[in-house]
Amino acid sequence: MNQPVIELTDVSRRYEAGPPALDGVSLTIAAGEAVAILGPSGSGKSTLLNLIAGLDRPSEGTVTVSGVRVDELGEAGSARYRRAKIGMVFQFFNLLDDLTVVDNVMLPAQLAGTTRAAAHRRAAELLATLGIERHARAYPGRLSGGERQRVAVARALMNRPALLLADEPTGALDSASGEDVQRLLTQLHGEGQTIVLVTHDLALAESCATRTIQLVDGRVSTDTALEPTR
Amino acid sequence: MSALGTIVRSGVGRRRVQTVVIGLVVMIAVTAAVLGGSLMVASSAPFDRAFTQQHGAHLTAQFDAGMATAAQLSATATAAGVTAAAGPFPMASITPVAPSGRALRPIMVVGRADPGGAVDSVSVTDGRWVEGPGEIVVHVDGRLPGALQPRVGDVLSLSELPGAPTVTVVGTARSVSQTAGGWVMPEQVAALTPTGVVEGYQMLYRFASAATTADVDAGRANVLASLPAGALAGSQSWLTTRANSAGQTVLFVPFLIAFGVLGVLMAVLIIGNVIAGAVGTGTRRIGILKALGFTPHQVVRAYTVQALVPAAVGAGLGVVAGNILIMPVLAQTNELYGTADSGVTPWVNAVVLAGALAVVMLTAGVAASRAGRLRTVDVLAVGRTPGPGRGHLAARLTSWLPLPRPVTLGLAHPFARILRSATIVAAIAFGVAAATFAVGLGVSLNQVQATERHGDVVIQPGRPQGGPPPGGGSGGGPGRVAGPPEAPDPTAVVAAILAQPGTSGYAGIAPTEVTVAGITAPVDAIAFTGSNSSYGYRMVSGRWFSQPGEIVVATPFLAATGTTIGDTVVLTHHGHPITVRIVGEAFNVESRGMQLLMAAETLAASDPNLRAMEYTITLTPGTDVNSYLKELNAALSSVDATAMLPDDDTAEFILVINALTALLTLMLVTVAALGVLNMVVLETRERVHDLGVHKALGMTPRQVVAMVVASVIVTGLIGGAIGVPVGVLLQRWIVAEMGDATGFQLPASVIDIYLPTDLVLFGLGGLLIAIAGALLPAGWAARTRTAAALRTE
Q: Which of B111, B137, B209, B578 could staple B215 via S-S, CB 3.0–4.6 A?
């Protein structure tokens, strides 16, 4: 097995009221794995993703990603951690409407201090790879859902992250666009990208993931390795 | 609680920043309005108000004690048309010498045991009323420099009287009717006459009708009807006193109006924006309210009341603050005007309170009316961030700037909301204009003050009595002079001045009086000797005199005589007619602008013995003034003269205006910064989802702060660029108005007071206001939890 990229140890996340969103979760994800987190609404999938991304902190337990104790990072530290280690793809794309496609894609690199010219070269390369280079100067509002998600993926890959996190990446797409994104993620995993995917979509999980983790009421219900379908 | 009440309460509670901003803006605006309104009232017809407050005398009459008895005079109180009378008060004329050795003008002292009464209820402004012999209360004139006024504790010498008695100033007081220059106990008056006998009495009358000269004349005739002919030695009508009471009292009005207008405009602008912003960011909430069955009218009402609640609290606090802050200011205006205002006039409080709430209601109603007009289906579907097409060009252009990406992102933000950005620009421009105007006004007024300084050192007649001559300070101290001053020997004084290292130039000042064809009263004239007579005078037009027969005058003289520069006028001095040419117009407020300045040689033929009474000396840069004074006084030891520092007291009214200006400017700048704060909070709230995206992509808190602060840089710079010229124009307009109001044309040194570097700094002040307003919300934005921001719809 490859080196672990993600290690969660007895992680719980409690909010002020109600049952814990996560309750004593421990898991390890190795480099190169594509893991799909499955579960019904309120099972803790997004909370788990937020903890790995450093967007939230556990109430208990430790979260280590690529050797970094994410649960101990401050605001600035977690921002730098996300820049360096994480690429994120969201259900509703979260593209910035007032920036062009290429400016959206360049943004993580520019935040990390990369020059505009260098960022532009990398962005152009990614847009070409993902087949959307013709939209470089367009604004996100003019693109289809599938195209927007491709832009989001390009942006997520901008800083060559160790880990790609995808939160319901096909949830806001029609079936054709969803299949398009599904192929893209599969391709990325095939190229060695570690992916953690939160989804309701079993078909997506089965086609992209090498392993599924089922959450129920904040606990790991099942953790299953899948046979590759490709 | 009704549904509307619930919505209002939740709106006020949820929109805490807007609630606080509305409350603070209204509080500051109301405070400024109460201050401004009260001062406008105080500045309005101050003589008439003071006259009413003091039960002023319509007629002040002096009677010859040898022609009319006290009993006869008392009986005039019942003459036809007399509604109240006071007196007879014994009176005497004295010529006191101040502790500095300066001979004061002769003053009429009146024996009054009590400052109050039915007529001429004198206001004691400092110290107490006289209680025994050897005490005097002197009349103060707030328009005179402090140095020329006796102060409590001063011992005045009466060296022209047998035994050279002294009187101690135990108080200062003001009579709006100007019935006396000083007051002593009645029993003491006889001792203040050379003969030891009371020679005159004063009677003060109020008449049933005194609106016109004819009324006062008729009243005087009624009074005199029962007295022996020739008993009246002199009289003064209140109408004459009122006509002479103009002066700086009108100076306040234009500047207060300017600040009042600025304050009201800013309050309207910011309150309108706060409500419009609340509507803009609350469109989804409005949609839900409408979907639940709220009528458009109810929605408008909800948002209007949402503004009125904090506004009412702010207005209440503003009234309290205004009433507290006005007290020390009113004390100053009482000094200046001779009034006895003890607090804010009630109707000012009522009008300001009602006006402020009406403005808030109107502004909020107009801003909220958009909420009523919004279609339910549209607002429920409304997006979070500005629609596509807004500010794209700016975003694209700024992305090319060689600056960190968070900064270039922020720089583009104002272009996405042009109207809102314009209102931020307006708020900043108002603040910058206020600061530019205020500082400029202060500098102008100080320049006016500087025109009264004509040297670094002055030599005045008289020697200190005992103790060493002053080596520093303006001199003074009790009992310095034994007798009335005489002009010191000019040859010896000039020799001492010229021999002193550090002397740059000097001027000898010989005051005298001349008559001018066409002007009934004598006119003050200054005849100069020496090389430096023009020092301190600012020319409005023309030039300084350069030879005998040339004079320099001020605007009021030109207006009174209908002359212009280049004209000749005939002066009469000691009976000799002298034709002189007006060669220059100087800004000179002395003698209310009726003072002529000329070379001593001009008057040499008419008065060969005219000597300089004082000397002003300018020093070469770097000269130690204290050493200079010590050495010059040593050199003057054989001359009856003392060198000292010029009195540098700033005129009271300039202090008042400076203090008010600082206070009102601070308020307007604060309101401007609050306006920016509110706008940035709105922006941040609207962009909170984008902010979450930025943070998710790795934007650090510091980069968030940089982005938010950068978002106000453009607006701050534009606001500064607009505000500076507005402030400069306002300063020029108000200063010119002040000059017009007092009858003076102001010199360029008073009007053109801004240096290019000043203007740049004021312009950057806009940036400072913008950044100050943005820092707090920038901090909030930096602390926003990313996960929560990403969930924001």
A: B209
Q: What is the ipTM of this complex?
A: 0.83
CB < 8 Å to B386, chain A: 97-98
Q: What is the CATH number of the domain that holds A154?
A: 3.40.50.300
Provide the pLDDT for residue B617. 92
Q: What is the pLDDT of residue B335?
A: 67
- For residue A112, give the chain B residue with the closest CA: B698
Q: State the DSSP code for B468.
A: P
**CA nearest to B693 within chain A:** A94
Which residues from B are below 8 Å from A103, CB to CB? Answer: 395-396, 399
Closest CA to B527 of B545, B501, B539: B545
> Is residue A230 situated within a structural domain?
no
Using alpha carbons, select from B475, B790, B791, B417 the residue that is nearest to residue B629: B475
d(CA B494, CA B641) in angstroms, rounded, equals 12
Distance from CA of A227 to the nearest CA of B (A): 33
For B668-696, what is each residue's pLDDT tens digit? 788 888 888 888 888 888 888 888 899 98
Is the Cβ pair B693, A108 closer than 8 Å? no
Backbone torsion region of residue B358, taken as left when φ is above 0, otherwise alpha when ψ lies between -120 and 50, otherwise beta: alpha
Residues of the domain holding A216: 4-225
Chain A residues close to B400, C-beta within 8 Å? 116
pLDDT band at A228 (very low <50, low <70, confident <90, very high): low
* Residue B396 near chain A (CB below 8 Å): yes
Q: pLDDT digits over B204-253, tens only?
A: 999 998 888 888 889 989 888 888 888 887 777 888 777 655 444 455 55
Q: Do A94 and B406 touch (CB under 8 A)?
A: no
Q: Which residues of A fall within a CB distance of 8 Å from B390?
A: 98
Per the CB < 8 A criterion, the answer to whether A185 and A197 are in contact is yes
Length of chain A: 230
Nearest Cα of chain B lies from the Cα of A163 at a distance, in angstroms, of 13
For B540-579, write each residue's pLDDT tens digit: 899 999 999 999 999 888 888 888 999 999 888 887 889 9
> Do residue A110 and residue B405 have CB atoms under 8 angstroms apart?
yes
Domain tally, chain A: 1
Q: Is A36 domain-assigned?
A: yes
